[in-house]
Request: fold
Amino acid sequence: MQVRSKIWLAVDGEPVFGSGREALFKAIDRLGSINKAAKDINLSYRKALSYIQTMEQRLGEQLVERKTGGLHGGGAHLTKEAKEFMKKYEQLEEGINEMLDKKFQDVFGKGN
Amino acid sequence: MQVRSKIWLAVDGEPVFGSGREALFKAIDRLGSINKAAKDINLSYRKALSYIQTMEQRLGEQLVERKTGGLHGGGAHLTKEAKEFMKKYEQLEEGINEMLDKKFQDVFGKGN
DNA sequence: CAGCGTTGTGCAAATATGTTATAACGATAG
DNA sequence: CTATCGTTATAACATATTTGCACAACGCTG
Reply:
């Protein structure tokens, strides 16, 4: 038996950023394309796009700058705001899993 | 903006206990019936039952003792094992939210 | 032995999710 | 100036999953 956890940020109760979106952002940053990023992390382009759209809508700022047409067909890259957001999320996550694992050992480890 | 979290236990990667199931267990304990419990926490009876069944299957022990027929048509109540499980889960959750809220303030509070 | 309210299951409807097709775009090559 | 290319973006379709409803079985009670 293992313990799992998920941390995410919400606006008005609706999720705007979590581990899935973080992975998407990282892939976009690495590959320069929503399409390639989605494939890389095994996500449909549709879902990836709707993630981005709802995030931007709920936060009220652009996170992924995208260009259609042009060299190589276009592409996408993260805005400064998106990178800051990612960084903060990582700080938030930091240490939580370790703490949870420790607690899990305390509670479930010896007794059972 | 708020931070949210979810903690659950898994066996072989498949979830066996989380906040939803905890709420179901509490309602069963209070109402003595899966049916009433499901309605109380806005869950379909089918889903509630499949939760219980998969949990019991994966853990290999009975968690909800149920009787069909008889006084008031039957009913259900938690086994000793289920109550112990709930207690441990609560211990596991304890303090995590407080710690997260504090971290959230640290990271998102002043800067933005 | 009929009535009751529950557990449990089968099936259709509804909803969510995934997949494929296609249009628009604009720099570049020819 | 036109064709090509890979991308963004949307629409239409297909597939899984969830939900809702109906109904049988059960066993205590009056």
